[in-house]
Amino acid sequence: ILFVGLTTKGTFFLLVRLCQLRQVIGIFARIQTSYRMSNRQQITSDCTEKLRKHNRNNMVNSRQSNIKMITCIIYTITLLLSIYPISVCSFAPSSFGAAHVSLNAMSTSTSLQMSRSTATPTEEMSPFQLRMLKLVQNDKKRVVDKKQRRTRPSNIPSNIQVVCTLDEYKNVVGLEKEKIVVVRFYASWCKSCQAMRPFFYRAAAKYPNVSFVEVPVTEKNAHLHQGLGVPSVPFGHIYHPEAGLVEEQKISKKFFPQFEQILETYVNGVCELPEGAVETPYNVIDVTEQ
Prior knowledge:
The chain is 58% helix and 13% strand. The protein has seven helices and seven strands, in the order H-E-E-H-H-E-H-E-H-E-H-E-E-H.
């Protein structure tokens, strides 16, 4: 009986202790749950705030892009209207606002615009039209300058003539009885001819008493080059008023200094003879070599 009583009493106290421990565990569990909930709420609020900021930035960027796009569209429409003015006479209601454009009015306004562009700037023209007018005029000047540069340079000596036909060649070269005549046969498409042209002009400026003639290769005077035995271009002839054709050779950039040296001997009337030399100081060039 005593053992049973003691055991029952111990069991009772053990149950009491277990109940108290369960309550303590429940309290700790509630505290932990509330702590986790507070952390979740904090994280959720932070994510929500970041999402709001991101959406706000996207809206601002989209507004700015829309404003830029609208500005570009307005500028483009203004530019087109200033260049091609269109007169809208009426709108067809059945076509949901499609404009009926008058072609006569458009042509008239375009002609007026062109006449204004060709005329001198006035106060009636807008700043944009004045700028466009200046650009067009500058472009025209550039085109004219390029054409002038391509045709002939402005610093051509006065003793240079251009011969294109056989009759002109006879009159300018064959009938010349007072001056030495230097002829340059060339082609407009020949790069070597273009490279030696400044040297030819420089020689013409150096010898103003010598007549320099240029003969371009064309379809009309092809027989002239064949008859004179011109094998290639650039090619040069030297005519003396008393002896006729005295020299003929290639006058590319490589051989032109020697050609000019030979010309100098005819102009001065003497040939330099180095001491002890008995042969010609000039390199003999085969004119038939292509």
